[in-house]
């Protein structure tokens, strides 16, 4: 698949480039990544080089995973990454620490979900995060995913095991408004 660009009211989602490597390495060194994501740890610049030069490009070329850089305009600095693993119909995302809490990720996820349903025949898009990742949970809830429970995750952790995960699903015909049934977190 040839990478394609998505645009929202304030964001541009395009393919990560070598110019993004230093930002990726800096963002992925945040301790929250060790706790809640499956990225290598400790995260090194070489991991970001491999991510951009191999993982992202192979995912697009093999039509296995679509991965976008999130930016606030054409050519702007990278804010985070969002992608979907097509075989699993699984959404994944992260945002650099200083960009969290601004409504960026729900806007990016909405664009990706729309593109996913327009360009595939999958009836559902899945989401999961490790239990305790309240930021990810709030994004999925805001984007209209329905909470499906706490269970072993489908995405293997760094140790190769399935960790306790919060899970959700967005159906092709869902109206994308927040649904009831999510854990109440204080």
From TrEMBL:
Gene Ontology MF terms: acyltransferase activity, transferring groups other than amino-acyl groups
N-acetyltransferase domain span: 11-175
Keyword Transferase annotated: yes
Family in the record: Belongs to the acetyltransferase family. RimJ subfamily.
Name of the featured protein: RimJ/RimL family protein N-acetyltransferase
Residue spans crossing the bilayer: none
InterPro entries, per database record: Acyl_CoA_acyltransferase, GNAT_dom, N-acetyltransferase
Key words of the record: Acyltransferase, Transferase
Keyword Membrane among record annotations: no
Domain of life the protein comes from: Bacteria
Matching Gene3D superfamilies: 3.40.630.30
SUPFAM superfamilies, per the entry: Acyl-CoA N-acyltransferases (Nat)
